[in-house]
Amino acid sequence: MKSIKEVLEEYFKGGDAPPVGEVINLQKQWAQLVGPVVSKNSEPLSLKGNRLVIWVRNSSWANELSLMTSELLTKLRTNDLCKNVEEIRFTLRKS
């Protein structure tokens, strides 16, 4: 029997979606990388090439985190999954 991860990776194979495991691993490490307050109000949604898309709770958090982009990039680049991230986009939509 295939794992959910394998089924999803097969489904998205050839598409624009990143490997499912990368985003899941990043979500698991999110609080460690960005701290408890930021992690309670944001979540990584996708990692494609050098662009990270982050869901934020509301427009105030989008504004706050956009002002912290340099600091976030520094913290995120300590993680192997994010070492090549050059751009962060914030969104209020989870899908």
In percent terms, what proportion of residues is strand? 15-25%
Counting copies of identical and different chains, the oligomeric state is: single chain
Instruction: Give the end-to-end Cα distance, rounded to a whole number of Å.
Output: 28 Å
Structural class by SSE content? alpha+beta
Summarize this, please?
48% of the residues lie in helices and 19% in strands. It has 95 residues and is of the alpha+beta class. The longest helix has 15 residues, at 20-34.
Question: Can you give a write-up of this model?
Answer:
- The chain is an alpha+beta fold.
- The chain has one domain (about 5-90): GMP Synthetase, Chain A, domain 3, CATH 3.30.300.
- It has helices at about 5-10, 20-35, 35-40, 60-65, 70-75, and strands at about 40-50, 50-55, 85-90.
Which SSEs are present, and which pair or pack?
Blueprint: H1 4-12, H2 20-34, H3 36-40, E1 42-48, E2 51-56, H4 59-67, H5 69-76, E3 87-91
Parallel strand pairs: 2-3
Antiparallel strand pairs: 1-2
Comma- or semicolon-separated keywords:
alpha+beta; 5 helices; 95 residues; 3 strands
